[in-house]
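Predict both folds.
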Amino acid sequence: MNIPARTQAAPVHLQAVTKRYAPKGPAAVDRVTLSFEAGCLTTLLGPSGCGKTTTLRMIAGLEKVSEGRILIGDDDVTRLPATQRDVSMVFQSYALFPHLRVTENVRYGLEVSRLPREVVEQRTQEVLRLMGLQALGARYPHELSGGQQQRVAVARALVLEPRVLLFDEPLSNLDAKLRRHVRQEIRELQRTLGLTAIYVTHDQEEALAVSDTIVVMNNAVVAQAGTPRELHERPATRFVADFIGEANVLPAQVGAAVDEERVRVQVGASSLVLPGRAPAGERRHVAIRPGRVRLHAPGTGEAPAGTLLGTVRRASYLGETMEYVITTDLGDVLVASPDTQIALEPGTGVAVELPPAAVVLLQD
């Protein structure tokens, strides 16, 4: 599908955008400043009520901005109606017209725009081929599977050749296996066409799988933004560490600075040198992923100095890994061990090693 220059993918900029549903009420979105890069897929991720869908709807023009500005490319669209923003949205419910066939659903937006009939037909057939829907053109929505309905919804948005494509929880109505397949289709399509896409979900696995950048929102503000790898490996806060995958969050005390970029941190018996800066004596938390924790059981060699001593409370075989819950003086530590040949029984005493390269000093 050829995207003409007039609808080339555009960046989106939010400048201190706020949304209140009542003049003196709480902010549903609170002074959010963000940039969505052209040609990339950015996901707004967070729990229900965090402000992600409201942010998407303000970009679409479906909600009015209380304060701040929204720019698409160089155009200030803050006060423009949805029909003048050159964006398309794929809704959670698909929002297909039940009385129209697939082909009629896809070309509906073009017909409303009163384009020449030959242009409407050319673009419609082009996007039906792109989405693999040629054979389904004569069917009604109720005659389609959930995955097929989703592809029709995407086709209807794409046919308008928008500068920005918006997705609002597009896979929430699909089963787990189909979600995985459809999210791959969406990602491949976005990359192939070089679309600017903004994608809303509460599913962290989905966000990690499809995104160039993830923006984690909580309580109406941005908690952290970065690549999937950055957010998973270097979360900034306890909320992000807990929300992006599994994490062990343990209490710690900051010691003396080692240099301008590193500080010594005491985590139980472990004295670790970690990237970051914080006042000496301050109580903080650190995070480490279960797969990065090392276990030393009796008979497996001497554990390094400074490990945490604990006892296996629970052991679960998960096929590719053994999952352990280890009780320590700092609380329970979750461990995902790749060694499935040896299962440690509950009650076994172990030493828990926290490799410094895998430990993150959190801001709160």
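Second protein follows, with its predicted structure tokens after the sequence.
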Amino acid sequence: MLSFFSPARHAQRAARHPWITLAVWGVVIAAAVVSATQIRLNDEQRIRGAESEQARQRVEDVRGETPPSETVIVQGAIANVDDAQFRMFAGSLISRIRLTEGVVSADSYYESGDVALVSEDRATLIIPVVLQGDVADAERTVAPLVDVVEESSRDGFSVLVVGDGSLMREVNEVFEQDLQEAETIGLPAALVVLVFVFGAVVAAGIPVVLGLLGIVVAVGVTAILSQVFGINSLTVNMITMIGLAVGIDYTLFTVERFREERARGVAKVDAIVRAGNTASRAVMFSGITVIIALAGLLIVPSSEFFGMALGAILVVVAAVAIALTLLPAVLSLLGDRVNLIKLPWMRPAASHDNENGFWAKTTAAVVKHPLLAMGGATALLLAAAAPVLTMSMGAPGLRDMPESLESVQAFNILDEKFSAGRLAPAHLVFEADVNSEQFKRDLDELEARLTADSSVSEIRELEVGDGGNLAVMDVIIDGDAIGSDARDAVDRIRDEYVPAAFAGSDTDVFVGGDAASTNDYVDTMQLYLPIVIAFVLALSFVLLMMVFRSIVIPVKAIIMNLLSVGAAYGLVVLVFQHGIGAGIFGFRQSDNIAAFLPVFLFAVLFGLSMDYHVFLLSRIQERFLQTGDNTGAVAYGLRSTAHIITGAAAIMMIVFGGFAMGRMTEMQQVGFGLGVAVLIDATIVRSVLVPASMEMLGRWNWYLPSWLSWLPKINVEGHDDRDDDCPDCPPSPQFIPVGAGGD
């Protein structure tokens, strides 16, 4: 076995050379801080192989790469566009815009006479602006234009701007503010929980500090990768949310084990190594299970999804690396000072095996009537999951964003006075001999059908590429470009109008644009959800089967996790889509659940919930192998792990709850979904389903067919054999040959 995978080896080296370890990590963290400032965010939504992506590529063949665009809106409180005062103000503004850094062009109604730039009541004027560069850089490029707009609202005139860069800029500002507020709420609350778990302030502070360092490292690495891959604006929030949850929890387990070993009189370095050989080993296994679950997300061919999955995986890797190396060095330097600033009124947390405690009494009640308990809990979770049947997936649009955003205000004006669809028209791309009479007749038929559609407000002139075999036509659809009305209109174009108009023709038609891209995105999420679930479940089943040498335990674990995830889905739909309880929590109701949420939520929740499941079941198995008493082992496992698992679950719920309190609908849905799932897993699953099912099955819990006896045995928390990779460490190997440890 490679020493690289030996937590005991890492713990021993870090404990004996703490200053060198801290120096190495200091360099890594400093580099990450510098790198993090260069992160490049790109909110373009691209689905590999989708029709919308094929359309986008062909549009670029005709027009070149589409530059970012903005729409400046001018309104007069009294004057209209024909008044001299309005004309003078607008003319001066247009001149300033044209001289602004990063602006390529700005159209003027007073020069072109284009009536599409003036509202019917003639009180509102729009100025289409084209910026330099590409959409990925629009957030930076638009900054000077935003400054000009903000300085121009005066003397009875209101000026707003909305477009690729301004919207991205404002949304990212809100994400950043929500992130800061979540940290302001979550970190102090998590620290309070840790103080009660440890009974000492210094011990409580270590997980928080190291959890934050893991986030910094992950963001730094993500920033490097963002220069090559598309990284969505949600990615940093995901890194922070997952990083705080797992980073604090992983450190919590190891610090607690170190304190227990010191309380038994074990020497400092030996206590660190034993903690590494037990708690850190469990942390490494836990991290592997989370990474396996998150790796399933990389299967999805979405640029937006790839960034979020990559960031989440990186922060789990960083959290595990810190727990295995940096934490032992910190404990070596602190020693018993980790217990400084004790709370005098706190009872010692050493007595976790309390036969008269809450968890012991709960378990006794459950195992007395296991069938009733399991039936009731299962019925409750299935009832909570029922709203999933009504789930409508989509992408939260401008209507789902806070109305305080100027971009949202500008969108509402555009939607009321003009057509908000002009911000992102649908693109119809034709591959054919566009000069043929057949194509012209087919195109006339298509335009007639489009004109008859009440959602279509404008059909723009056909643009033909070089060679005459490729053409693009923009269609402006009323409303939010990714709203349900626009998406329904795109479906009609794809499924009805195009097939009817080009029946029997050899013309290939591709429909693109934001609405089409959103439809492809939703379809992709629905297609890949069962694929991701199958991938994660298959790998998790094999891993759990090797850990517990049972086919029953992994099957039960998978069923229980599916129940808790299903219940979380149902509650998200109930609160956000149907609005039941949304006002109580301060959430924004939405017509759709974010399309990425079911896939992302499943992977994250399965990984996180499996953490607790493995910690709990490994303790039960250990006791069962010692005593052969199944009921006693279940009771012992629950009460002996309750202290640490309850604290870890409480921290996760606090962290996720902090993010759910943000203003962006997507983050509210993610935070609420994760928080409620952890709550379900830490209560109903752990306190009812696990003991009830273990009691009902008895020795069958540990059944493994003889033809699978060749499987290697993975030991999560260490035992009494010697680790060949660390001869000076306390004995405790990771893998035990069948028969060597007794089965």
